[in-house]
TrEMBL record:
Cysteine protease that plays a key role in autophagy by mediating both proteolytic activation and delipidation of ATG8 family proteins. Its main location: cytoplasm. One of its GO terms (molecular function) is protein-phosphatidylethanolamide deconjugating activity. It is found in: Cytoplasm. One of its GO terms (biological process) is autophagosome assembly. This is Cysteine protease. Keywords: Autophagy, Cytoplasm, Hydrolase, Protease, Protein transport, Thiol protease, Transport.
């Protein structure tokens, strides 16, 4: 069939994605809009879509029963961690469907329930954010969200995940290794799902500022390189006044999941009843949002999941190779003493837990 004619036939059905001949990239995997549309939708729906909720138990002493208007970046952080935990504990071949009752999946989704006892709930993240100087009900920047999540994961060793935040646009390999080696954490030599028993699986977060008030277009090839990395688990960011979780791109458009939908708080349980199945479906969506790269807010946090030391070394090598042909987003060096600033994105950082220069309102 003539390609132009085939594209015309597909256009109404594939309106949720741009009709392009070049690959569509989602979490480091490429798809053809002409031949892989259902697989592409399945990849999007497998990622948990976590949004504003209402009518949940109040957070702390605030009497707040909804996070509408202030919890969007927390929800983006939850989507990032959920994607990472699904990879860590279920693997890259696992996919969600409405009838799926996988106990590993149900355990993970329960950790994000909107209740005080859930370890990765908005209750826990907001409370930990308050300990970091951001009162419950105030908007949290992405750095505060990640720092709060990091504190929580330290108290949840069964999740077997180490978080490293690479500040100042520098990934220092020796510092990452020190945090991920199992001996450093006193972990057993082998845990289920590890490809390297010495290495504690890593969520690597690199906060960046890619322009002053607008995204500088010279950084777009670097962002595309991030989305094409097999280790990529999304980018926390947004457009001005609107936090979003970016999951991939198609030509000049970036694809995202938007937390700005208010849904009732739900209980999924074991998915024995139809009401629980319906509740689970509120955490998944097939259709991503999309917008031009240039509409992105310049403050972002690029994120990677790394399951072994060799995987980490491969990520660093591949990104350095891509960044040599374009403006690099960040620098990778072996140690602080070997760092030499190049043409990398700048990040204004004035304190260990400061969102200054790395903040999107909304």
């Amino acid at each position: 069939m003539d390609l132009v004619f085939e594209t015309y036939l597909l256009a109404p059905e594939a309106s949720d994605f741009p009709i392009v001949d070049s690959p569509v990239w989602i979490f480091g995997k490429s798809y053809s809009i002409h031949y892989d549309l259902e697989e592409l939708r399945r990849s999007v729906s497998t990622c948990m879509w976590i949004t504003y909720r209402k009518n949940f138990p109040s957070i702390g002493e605030t009497h707040m029963t909804s996070d509408k208007g202030w919890g969007c970046m927390i929800r983006c952080g939850q989507m990032l961690v959920a994607k990472t935990l699904l990879l860590r504990h279920l693997g890259p071949q696992w996919h969600w469907d409405p009838q799926n009752k996988d106990q590993g999946y149900l355990k993970i989704v329960s950790m994000f329930a909107d209740e005080r006892s859930a370890p990765l709930s908005i209750h826990q993240i907001a409370t930990n954010g308050a300990m970091l100087g951001k009162p419950i009900g105030s908007w949290l920047g992405p750095n505060t969200v990640i720092q709060a999540v990091k504190k929580i994961l330290i108290t949840e060793p069964t999740l077997d995940l180490h978080v490293h935040v690479a500040m100042d646009s520098i990934v220092v390999k020796s510092e990452v290794r020190a945090g991920c080696l199992a001996e450093h954490h006193g972990q057993p030599r082998s845990l289920p799902g590890r490809t390297d028993p010495r290495w504690k699986p890593l969520l690597l977060v690199v906060p960046l500022r890619l322009g002053l008030s607008e995204l500088n277009p010279v950084y777009i090839p670097g962002l595309k390189a991030v989305f094409e990395s097999p280790q990529n688990v999304g980018i926390m960011g947004g457009r001005p006044n609107h936090a979003l979780f970016f999951i991939g791109y198609a030509e000049n458009e970036v694809l995202y999941l938007d937390p700005h939908t208010v849904q009732p708080a739900v209980t999924i349980g074991s998915k024995i009843y139809s009401t629980e199945e319906a509740a689970d479906e509120t955490y998944h969506i097939q259709k991503p949002g999309r917008m031009n790269f240039l509409a992105m807010d310049p403050s972002v946090a690029v994120c990677f999941y790394v399951n072994s030391e060799s995987d980490f070394d491969n990520l660093c090598t591949k990104l350095n190779e891509r960044f040599t042909s374009s403006v690099g987003l960040f620098e990778v060096c072996e140690s602080r003493s070997t760092f030499s600033s190049g043409n990398i994105a700048s990040f204004i950082h004035s304190g260990e837990d400061d969102d200054e220069g790395f903040e999107i309102l909304g």
